Predict the structure.
Amino acid sequence: MINDLDQSYQAFFDPKRPDSKRPKIKQKISDNGSYLDTQAHIKDGKIFPTTNVKMSNRKLYTGGIKCSEAISDLNDKNKRYRMRFIHRDHKYYAAISVKRPVKSLMATGQWDGVDVNVDHFNSTNRVVWLSKQPLYDRKLGKVVYPKTRMARLYDKIAHYQRALAKKRECVIRHAKKNKQKIDRRLWQTKNYQKVQLKLRQCYLKVDHIQHDIVQKYTNYLVKYHDRLYIEDLDVEHLKMGIASKGLHRSLFGYFRQTLAYKCRLFGRELVVVHNKYPSTQVCPNCGFAKAGNNKITLSGNQKHHTKHNEFKCYHCGYTADRDAKVPASLIRYSADSMSEIMKRQKLGQDYQVLGI
Ligand SMILES: [Zn+2]
């Protein structure tokens, strides 16, 4: 065991690590990897990985690793940390898990709901676009929807994946014809590896963009709101996406996870709205929900002749865009009223949503 740990330590920190299989082209990603140390400790703001006295050949970093960030508040000679060293983009990072006390932010008195859509996150004052962003084109005099950088990267990914699949198919067909043994080495040519590398670069970029979007957006939400409502991300939502299903699936989970931990960390309240809650049908102004014939559907409303994106309340006359008012409707949710709502939905008559 100690031998294994030592070997992986040596391999991880060795700058001359052999990597002969890598194609020789201009490289934007360094060889990423990580190494887990469960017994590291911190002294004078420096990290000391596990030392093994018997192995004399380990000379690297015995004086401790200096960090660019101040970690002196973690100084504890006797405490052992579970630390993961990560090598990424020519830099080394150390991830330390530490329990921190809950920080409290100032109460703002604001509540907000977040509606997670296939191509955008929607809250009362901020909409974050994922695949297509509306822009006003002055020349054309109307709003156009150019693709975002992330969507363009996904196009690239699809292109590279097709190219790789084509190459594999071609080689396999050729091998079958010549009754050769099918081996992955047959198609692992230099060109194939170049495309593979480009593909990996695209994935990495997408990863960074997604991270950026979610972190900034959740920061905003947590900073300015005491209580946040999000919908339970059910399969119904994911079914809506036809082409972009794979595109956003991982982002949804990541968003919810990040928001949940930030709410916990900063003492904000996170309410997960029941997935049967009719957020589209509820009027944020008077709290009446539409049912039966009055419902707004994807093709509008037949009975009242409204369009698919037009929300009109038949009780108080409130009008709004169908998607834009969802966050305001989410705020009206309370878990106690769910059984009543489901009963009323079956009756097919408009009903008052309890709550605030
Ligand atoms: Zn109303």
Q: What stands out?
A: The chain has three domains: 2-96, 149-227+238-270, 288-352. The chain has seven helices and 16 strands. Residues 283, 285-286, 288, 313, 315-316, 318 surround zinc ion (CB under 6 Å). The chain has a mean pLDDT of 80.
